[in-house]
Amino acid sequence: MVNKLAHWLSRRPKRILFVALLLLIPSIIGYVATKVNYDILSYLPDDVNSVQGEHLLEEPFQAAATCEMVVENMPAKYTDTLLDQIKDIDHVSNAFWLSNSLGIQVPTNFLPADIEKDFYSGSATMMIIQFDKPAASEETMKSVATIHKLMNKNCFLAGMSAMVEDTHQVIDTELPKYIGVAVLLTLIVLLISFESWLMPFIFLGCIGMAIVYNMGTNLFLGQISYITKAIAAILQLGVTMDYSIFLYRRYEEERTKYSDNRDAMAEAIAAAFTSLSGSSLTTIAGFIALCFMRFTLGRDMGLVMAKGVVLGVICVVLVLPSFILIFDKPINQYTHRKLLPDFSKLNDFMVRRRYLFLVIFLLALVPAFYSQAHTPVYYKMDESLPKTLNSVVGNDKLKSQFNMSTMHIIVIDSSLDNETMSKMEDSLDNVKGIEKVITYHKFLGGGIPDFFIPDTIRNIFKKDQYQLILLTSDYAVASDEIRTQLSDIRAVTDQYDPNAYITGESAMTEDLITISSHDFDVTNYISIAMIFLIVAIVFTSGSIPFILISAIELAIFINEGVPYFTGSTIPFIAPTIISAVQLGATVDYAILITSRFHEEILNGKTPQEAAIIAGKTSDPSILTSSLTLLCATLGVTLISQMAIVKEICNMLARGAIISAVVTMFIVPSLLCIFEPIINKTTRGWRKKPEPRKTDDTPSAEAPAQA
Description:
- By secondary structure, the chain is an alpha+beta fold.
- Helix content is 66%, strand content 10%.
- It folds into three domains: 1-33 and 194-334, Up-down Bundle (Multidrug efflux transporter AcrB transmembrane fold); 49-164 and 389-476, no CATH class; 340-380 and 511-684, Multidrug efflux transporter AcrB transmembrane domain (Multidrug efflux transporter AcrB transmembrane fold, Up-down Bundle).
């Protein structure tokens, strides 16, 4: 079946390429129409308390997102005018600063002192703006962008919605630069690796089409995260280029056997289809493992990248042969001398000192495992943003002007009586690190009758059977202090309203910390188990998966442990992504060497000879593949201002090289040393030698061990 399909494809290159180019049109439309989610916290599961509280802010409070604006050194008339303009913006459900909302009937100095200082600090005043759509929604981001246009240099917008909009602007500005640098650096590697001047451009064209197909079909997923949008294209380029290289190398080999290049291509397609199907499974498994995360950002990235690998294989099998056959003549006409070095002496040196490399392998495991387990991570989202962004400056203003590092929002029963509310407020005031407690009940504390309080304020704090308590904290999001503080707040709310919900950025981040810790273990175990099974099936072996996965896991530990030694802090999502992706994408390096090692064993070579040949013939492909992944991700590392995107790509780039080095230097030695064990635990590992005869007498000599 595959042979017939390959023969059919090789006879219709122009037709296939024409259809492939036509499919780019709907793919580009789908790419443009795909929504992007810029709020990481929105990927928390719906069953956690903080997310349920967030849903209540959407309905009934119509306050799905909240911003705080600090206005410095401006007259009240300016602030009033600005407020009126903001209220007229679509999807702004509420906006107020204290003087405007209370009106002339309630003088500011008539308010309780703690309420007044909540909104005034020297020459600065704070405005609260609420939106009826979630922070990451397209509607809210447009509203925030409009607010930015109305502000002058003395206004600073803070809060999650402002941060999401700033993230949007940074990613959209940087994305074309990521792709441009990735293509340029990858092109340089391919030009060094191949003798043809034209072939690297064909490789990039084919993979580029697969990337467009992948990004266009994301429309059917509804939306993708900004992290996926930022790195999916370059990651797909890095992990699927191997497939193009494999098919072309096989075509070059087959072309010497056939007079008709179409027959050579048909044979190459048939051979490549079987090999690529198995090879791509490990990469797909790594991405699929991310889908088991409760934090659904993993599923978002896992589905997009697994789909990208599948589409990459399809394009290599269907589209790349058409490119090669159409441009076959100029591909072979415009060439340069071979630039990659010969690795024979290096592999001979390593195999002769194989026990030394085994010792290095074992000794490296301990510090690598320890360092990766103790690498510090951060969860605070604004740490991933440039410090000059308006939202980051605004958050700093809230801290310096109003002693407000973060805000907790508590949703409680609106039927609680005044005495209970007073006790709860006093208890919350006494929680360490709480700067302010803002409630509707406190507005009445100065003797203001309920009917004097404008609906603007009443609707912010009370709706249907719920009311809100706003707490401002001195502590930073994701700090040890905030964790203790949230625990103390929960103890208070449980005492007065056991059904209360605690939400806000800090509460959601704490839930994120708990969930992501669990996710790391789950995805790590699942990816190892899936790839172990795939390798075991490919080699019908019980020992080879242990050897290969152990080697790549060492590379992963080293990669994740580097920040421990450099004193760096990495984003919380990075270890989970790296563990699954680096294992799935780079275990192919080890599989490639092992396959060639097995081939040479079957040809009667000794383990030492087989290891040297396997290393010598595989190293150029491994080096090209790892450098391609390095270059694809290096551009983001060099350009990006988004720390979370930058660090993930930095670790992917570093991981590709570390995996290549471990595979090239360690795996041949391990295969050579453990070959006797592999022979006993792998079906059909060695050919049975023909019995030797001397004259007419059968030889009694046992088969020689390779």
